[in-house]
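Narrative of activities, Objective 1.

The group set out to show that a structural description can be obtained from nothing but a protein's sequence at a throughput compatible with the screening campaign. Below is one input-output pair from the validation batch, recorded exactly as produced.
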Amino acid sequence: MVLYQPLNGYCYNSDTHFLYDFICRNFEKFKNINGELLDIGSGSGILGLLVSRDYSKLHLNQCEIQDNFQEFSCINAKCNNIKNNMYRGSFLEMDFDKQFDICISNPPFYHSNVIKSENENLKIARYNDSLPLEEFIEKISKVLKNSGKFFFCYDVKQLNQIVVLLGKYKLNIESLQFVHPKKGKDATLVLVYARKNSKSLLKVLQPLIVFEDEEFTSNVQDIYKKSSTHSIKAQI
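Output recorded for this entry:
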């Protein structure tokens, strides 16, 4: 999959690849994956495009607040022969014309009180000022169909708040996976799968270890091989 990205601005990283793999692993127990898919904060479009590539019965919808990334998402969808529907603007302020079967997102999750980049595009993509956690989860609950699936990744240090807020808005956590930079190091990222009005018990997947002896672990190498993406920096 060829993906154009901005010369100067936020580029997708390993978090998105890990989330894509996590989504696929959780889809394995379902016989038929179809319906309306919404990628929130689509950026260059990578997450929604990868999922749509592998599950062709899904109808891809994307929501993106930044003008340049709206264009990158649409260009990348066209280049990879995937039909997309772009909602242009803030997810929190968007008046959607339908509900969705699946919502996916690699949202900005850094706290607003940490040191920020001077690049405005990077600020929006990385810091949660424009998408505070509670408002984000509340809106997800509104746009998801009953029993709809919600997949996202977040800073593991905020897991206690994630658990509380998902429960508050009737989104039951069905699966978690923790991402560790190295064996013996604390987790830095959590991958979350929640389902609207579900009663299922939680399953915690084996942790994903990123590096071993300064090289990617075999699990991470397999994820990149499965994603099979090629990035091209471009100006639009």
